[in-house]
Structure formats: structure tokens, C-alpha cells
Amino acid sequence: MIISIDCQWCGTSVSLPSSGYMTVRTKTKQQTWKHSIQLPISQQEESFLMYEFNSHYELLQGLQTLMDHEMQQEWVHLSQIHGNKSFPMQIEHLFERLSHPELVTIIEEGRFTSYLQPIVHMDTGEVYGYEALLRSTERNVSPGDLFSFAKRAGLHSMLDQKAREEAVKAKATHLYDGQKCFINFLPSTIYVPEHCLSHTFNIVKKYNVDPGDLVFEVVETERIHSIDHLHNIFSTYKASGMHVALDDVGSGYSTLEVLSLLKPDVVKIDREYIRDCHENYDKQTFLKSVITTANELSITLLAEGIETKEEYRWLEESGIHLGQGYFIGKPSPQPVEEFILP
């Protein structure tokens, strides 16, 4: 039996054999694990131990021992019994993949689709575009669970890449020319923008989508560790004729100060500031400051999470450009084509 395991960085698949060798470095503070792994020692040196496994279950048990000794972040090398090639894998990643092969299959085979949630012009109610939201075709697997597993298993690069492709396909299949499609992305999966995004750019060409109709959006679960790195990612998208958006301004990393540094085309306002904005003075004060800054920088503002007519009306009258939320339309396999102004 072969389980496919993706490259640590770019999502290229390699194969994990059901029998072979696991090589573990021995230069750690605690080495009690050496005598705890119930696998035969094939080779022993001062700097490493090589264990032989004859099934994925045996390998999983050996990995469990390493996890029990708090070695999750360390790496092992796996190799076939009759072969010279080996590849490194972080212990936690390998353990998670062997523990949940069904989730690995969902990600690797792309067993998901994109639902589309409408985004409208606040003043007219006309549809501006849609956000593509990932949904698994397996009923018992939620998007949140899938992304959480992908992060633990080191598969977030592969999932992010495949999710982007599914979103581009949804744009080509369901949306008209000129309608924008917002596509989430994880900055942590993009190491060298010019290289890592080449797959996405090729997909855009494959489906004959106008790059100007795509808006790539930093997802809310991410944290910006390097403004310069994100600026390079944004610049790479823009150089290919696409637009970029910053999510959740006002919470976490997306402070007003970074807007002038990153200059995104669109800024989404954190939904916590949208809820009951029509009757909360503090939220109104913050929103007015965002509107002023966005106008100064020629940034389009999008209010997400709109759930009531009162919220919608206050935001529209205050000068917010675009709106999104259950009050306007829920995510669906087919795009909602019309919204009636309240």
C-alpha cells in the first residue's frame, strides 16, 4: 500500500511505502525514546538511529513514541527497504497524515467545491462580485476541520493551492465577465511569490479568466509576520493584473497603520465592527476613521457580516462601498444574481 505524501513546500506528491526505514537524529536533550520505540534497529551511529517498519501501523506506533517525548517539531527521514532515496518529514506532520488518511485523500484528490457568496454595491444593490468559499464534498468534513487538519499535517500549501484552483474554476463556470471573484489565500504557504504563484497564474490562463476579475484576499486566520513579504506577494499579484484585498481590518494584524504600507485594492472590515453598528457609538467612531483613511488612500471598503436592514442602511449612508453578509445572500453552489435594496 502506498500513501501519497506531498512535498513540504510546494505540494508535489511523493510516495510513502508501507515498509522501509525511519531514521531519527539522536542529538537531543532527551534520548529515552531510543529504547521505547518497538521497531527493530537496522543501523546505529552516534548521530542517528535507523528503525525498520513493516507496516504503516508499526510506523505510526514509532511516531507516537516520538510524540510522547515531545519531539513533534523534529524531523525524520523515510526510505524504502530497497532504495537509496529518502525524504525528510516533520514528525507531527507524518503522524497526522498516517492517523487520518481519509483527510489526506480529500485534500490530495481535491474532493471539494466552491460556494459563492454575493458582494453588492451598497448604494445600488447591484452585484459587484462573489467570494468563493471552500466546501468539502464529504458531508461529515467541515471547511474549518479540513484547514485545521491541513495545518497540523503540513498540507496547508497543497490545500491552499487546490482551493485557489477550485475558486478560479467556479469563476469561469458561474460568473460573467466583469464580475469579481474574491479568492482566499494563506501568505504562509507562499515562500517565493514569483515561483509559488506561478501555478495559480497558469490556472487562470487554463480557464481563460480575465485576471482583472480576480481579487486575492488574505484570510482571517492568518497573521502577518512580515509586512515586506506580504507586500511582495501583493506586488506579484498586481503585476499579473489581479487585485488584492486585506481582511478583517480593525482586528489582530489588520490595523489601520498597515493600510498605507500595503495599499490593498480592497479592505474588508472585521464583522465585529459591523454587528449592531447602527446603534453602537464606539463602532461608529472606528468605522468613520476607516472610511476617512480608505478615501485618502483610494481603497475600496467592503463591510462583511451584514445581517440586518438597519446595519445595511447605516453603512450605506456612511459611505461604505461594498457589502456582504447573510442579509444580502448566503453562500450557495449557484450564484445569487439579484439583491433587492431594503
UniProtKB/TrEMBL annotation:
InterPro entries according to UniProt: Cyclic-di-GMP_PDE-like (IPR050706), EAL_dom (IPR001633), EAL_sf (IPR035919)
Pfam families reported for this sequence: EAL
Segments forming domain EAL: 96-342
Protein name per its UniProtKB record: EAL domain-containing protein
Organism: Pontibacillus salipaludis
